[in-house]
Design brief:
This protein is mainly beta. Helix content is 9%, strand content 37%.
């Protein structure tokens, strides 16, 4: 239930499995609802799948569906709760919780200014036997997003619509082979086989054709590592590449170059970074190198990265070359090298 101005209670409608659109460089700040003024507030509680046990320090991921803002990733407190004020231009959001290798289903909420909204997210702590699809529907000729496209898997009840930027999410899909169906008035219908793997997310881009004779529909898929997805690697990669804040190295890069050492791969692919993982750009007006912070799976490991991990064990690498571009969780005056294992 939601509490509005003057104590009026209204219900919040949650819809599971709808898409979200991360397109922002700003984040909402976590503040108690009483400090939100005329803005909406959002109280999120994370519990186990029974709804009885709160999950402290679970990560809550929130994406604004209409506002042009960067997604929010914030840890719940020791009671499994997170309170925040909603940006004034946000009217809808999709959110879910993550903890270790477990996650909740996505929930969508409509946000009204001046109202207090409450959402409970339940982690699916049993063995994960499902996967999910996230994707974007575009015009194959213009590459412009196609909104309100109907996306469904006939073997699963329910259908979702792409939002105004073409994004959609299909969650809790049974593991195995499925037929993805996409329809929109004015475009040729598309049917394409997809494989859902246990505990993973498949990212798919769909290009619909207005003239099926002249241009066939286009489909491209890539599988995301669930581990790296939970750690926020793909979100930082999206925004880092979009805003020029960092360099991101994937498994495909490692398989292509087959390096003997992780440090050598970083220095080869990232200009101004030496094999000792030092930043060769001048700092503080001095013409000298500056040692970068080094993290492995979120923990600082000091200088000798290569003694801790081999290239074949790496799932992704983030390289930030300055304090301003380095995310707050990876402090480093001279930048940071962040390595994630598979």
């Amino acid at each position: 239930m939601d509490r509005g101005p003057g104590g009026l209670m209204v219900s919040t409608v949650l819809l599971v499995g709808l898409g979200a659109d991360p397109t922002s460089a700003l984040q909402a700040t976590a503040q108690p609802p009483e400090d939100c003024g005329d803005r909406a507030s959002l109280a999120v509680t994370v519990r186990d799948d029974s709804g009885q046990i709160p999950i402290p320090n679970a990560t809550i991921v929130l994406r604004w569906m209409d506002a042009v803002r960067r997604p929010l990733r914030e840890a719940a407190d020791t009671d499994g709760e997170l309170l925040l004020c909603v940006p004034p231009d946000a009217t809808a959001a999709t959110l879910w919780a993550e903890f270790g290798d477990a996650s909740s289903a996505e929930a969508n909420v409509a946000l009204a200014p001046g109202y207090a909204h409450e959402v409970e997210l339940r982690l699916l702590l049993q063995e994960v036997k499902t996967g999910r699809l996230i994707g974007r529907v575009m015009d194959a000729r213009t590459n412009q997003p196609v909104a309100a496209a109907e996306v469904s898997v006939p073997s699963r009840a329910g259908m979702v619509s792409s939002n105004r930027r073409g994004h959609f999410v299909l969650s809790a899909l049974p593991v195995g082979e499925h037929e993805l169906a996409v329809r929109h008035i004015g475009y040729a219908p598309l049917s394409h086989p997809v494989t859902v793997r246990q505990g993973t997310t498949t990212e798919i881009e769909i290009g619909l054709s207005a003239d099926p004779v002249e241009l066939a529909p286009l489909v491209a898929t890539v599988e995301r590592s669930r581990r790296l997805e939970i750690k926020g690697f793909y979100e930082r990669k999206h925004w880092g590449e979009l805003l020029g804040l960092g360099t991101f190295i994937t498994v495909e890069d490692i398989e292509r170059w087959r390096p003997l050492r992780v440090s050598h791969l970083v220095s080869m692919l990232v200009p101004s970074v030496g094999p000792e993982l030092v930043n060769r750009r001048g700092f503080s007006g001095l013409n000298r190198t500056c040692r970068m912070a080094v993290y492995l799976d979120g923990f600082a490991v000091g200088r000798d990265l290569d003694s801790f991990v081999k290239p074949t064990e790496v799932g992704g690498i983030e390289v930030y070359k300055g304090l301003a571009s380095t995310p707050a969780e990876f402090a480093g005056r001279c930048g940071a090298v962040v390595v994630w294992t598979k």
